[in-house]
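Annex B. Sample input.
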Amino acid sequence: MLFSSPVFLFLFMPLLLLVYWSVPRPLRNSVLLVASLVFYAWGERFFALVMLGSIFGNWLLGLALDALTDPGRRKLVVAAAVVLNIGLLAVFKYSEFLIANLNALLETVGIAPITVVAPHLPLGISFFTFHALSYVIDVYRGVARAQRRPVDFALYIAFFPQLIAGPIIRYHDISDQLRRRPVTLELAASGIERFLAGFGKKMLLANPLGEVADHIFALPAAELSLGAAWLGLLCYTLQIYLDFSAYSDMAIGLARLFGFTFLENFNYPYLSQSLQEFWRRWHISLSNWLRDYLYIPLGGNRVAPWRVYVNLATVFLLCGLWHGANWTFVVWGLIHGLFLIFERLGLSTLLARMPRLLRHAYTLAVVSLAWVFFRAADLSHAITYLKAMVGLGAGWSLDFLGDIDPLVVICLALGSLASAAVFSPLTADWRLRRNQNQGRVDPDIRTLQIGQDGVVMMAGRLIVLLSIGLLASSQVAAGTYNPFIYFRF
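Annex B, continued. Sample output.
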């Protein structure tokens, strides 16, 4: 079920809010859990059992960790949890990729290929697996106590706003909220506002740009001109940020309606002046997860310089693979890892002496180049696309101008302004997000007061948000292009 689908907007969500606020407080987590399972089963049905099996297994492992005092046995339990969760990913997400590469290797030595039917990839498996690992490792480290209430633990894994496409919530960030979470009118109002802003960003900006990007990336090499390649990449660069940050906005907004406050997942990443800064602003919940549960355990920055470089390459190789079982994602991750290593080797010192504009240009160039691999169907497609960007495709044809209509121009302009944080001063919520540190805003979102921006600003915001909601709903009703990019991960 999509947040931007009619059944979610006009049936699931109103009904859930009505039931949630009608039942006694002790039953509210149960209501949210049942709703989350319905939300998931709506699209997956049988594979909801896979998620339930993961929940049950990890809950038992958490209890075992809490009960054991012997360090050796605790290590065995946490190792079992890692094998269970990574094994789940390996079977459902990577088995086809591994067998295809093994068959290619076997072919070179004249051995018959292995035939295996690839399993279906359950929605959100990369996200709920990382949630489960976060829980078990937090309990192992003593950062959090094991959750004894199965309903509360299952809700942490399956809570529908973050279930399919994140943000990735670390258990220790939310464990207290599973027990008690005050809901204020201000928090609920900010949640509605955040949801509508994300809804509009998705339907009115990301989707039109996505149509152009999809059309151009699908062009055969003989028709892919230099201008078309650059237009396609520009549209995709904006689309992926607007689309994914819109999903995060909607997830964070929905969570606030039930009293949860998630950490932020984006902080205007295209304003970054280095790759290091980009990864402090892009998909922050994934960056935090990889830092806490992979990079630091590998030794982080506390080891010899060459080990730091190996750690960075390892983390970003796995980051790429986490996004998908395809060599394109591996290359995408390695490009980021490689430039992060270059920056540690001295590039960051050189960048610091450059004008701010050049630092932005460097970051956007690397990030955009890497997006070609992220978006391409395979490595051959990516190479063909890059050739077209330097004029080695269909030449200098101006056919791409046919993809540029007034709507696309408006979306490019508004999308660029939104990416550059031009609109952030308009609300107290958005201003708070500019002051975040690794996703945590300071002061806390709960300090927001209705009316603190003044009556005129409130009235203006209300009119704008209602207009956005109506326009976006009209796009939903028209059944326009509507996929979320991160659903396939």
